[in-house]
Amino acid sequence: MADELKDLKIAILATDGVEQVELTDPKKAIEDAGGETELLSLESGEIRGFEHIDPSGDTFEVDKTVSDASPDDYDGLLLPGGVINGDFIRGDADAVSFVKSFIEAGKPTGAICHGLWVLAEADVVSGLRVTSYPSLQTDLRNAGAEWVDEECVTESGLVTSRNPGDLPAFCEKIVEEYAEGKHEDLATAAKES
After folding, report:
1. Number of domains the chain is built from
2. pTM of the predicted model, to two decimals?
């Protein structure tokens, strides 16, 4: 099914320190399914991927800064992980606002590993069942989420996973959720957070 995401545009929000494979594997899955991706970041130019904490990854050209982007221009959102990436993004008001607006619109979102820090910061996970890198479980519980240790969790159009080992299940599920489109129950849950 190479066309299930035909005519859909997915925003990928990342910065330096992104866990490279958590950017490249989902991007490939989206594009293989016929979707278009656009890399958003905090600044223009390039970002550098990491492999865990090793900064020798590839560089990726940024398509647009998050401050110049509108959730209205995208059908889905991807938040890759990486400790540095997640921490920088959750500290940027424009990025947090972008993510919050996106979730409140009910648009399907995939977040893996430390990408969930941004969802906690945006205050959009209260009452939702999620998974993440284990060290984030207290942050997510404090934000009102029900944290579980599972390979891939889907709730109301929000797909979450723990780490690079979960990527096959994560990539399959995000493509499915992006293809389904808006999830009004995600928008409702976010507004009640």
Report:
1. 1
2. 0.96
